[in-house]
Fold this sequence. Notes:
The protein has 209 residues and is mainly α. The chain has 7 helices and no strands.
Amino acid sequence: IDKTIGKQLLMRIINFSSPLIIWAVFGWMQNMIGRWYLGMFLNLEAVAAYTILTSLSYFVPNMVYTVCNAYIMPIVFASRNRLTKSYLVKYLSILAAGFSIYFVAILFLGRWLIILLADPKYLIILEYLPITTLSSIFYVLAMSSTLEIYRRGETKKLLLSSLLPGAFMATVGFLLIKELQFQGVVLNYVHGHLIYVVLTSIVVVKNIE
Length: 209
């Protein structure tokens, strides 16, 4: 009996974790592919500028997501009740309100943040910072909407939304960056996020009552 329970538990762990492992690989590729292509088509200065751009865009939303999930996830997993759509909307609205403050700060203090955290020579990224920040915010909100999917252990439903953005950025991104260079890598970054947001939102809407 113990062996049977152990095998069942192992299979549940594999079924839950395998999509996450695949997501981790494609997520890592999604984060790195722009740097690789910029290094190939431009130079290390462009790679540095892109790294600063994505860090400023994504760091605060991701930090908020990590902290909130550390508090919310145990509550959701411990509950026997399904997470309702109304509860999820309230949770996402609170996050969105916090993110909007950061977005406004980027609009008005972006130049100062670049100078303070990097160097004035990277002010070339200032014109792109609002759009990359906005796409990062939507990306994090989409990730935050998957609480109930994770609670049910139905991570396979998120496989397509995890794979397709990375695949898009690796293929179409090559052409975008080759032709448009830094503007191309920004478009690639934003498109990758939008694909994830759309596909994840479809899964969540279909599965949350």
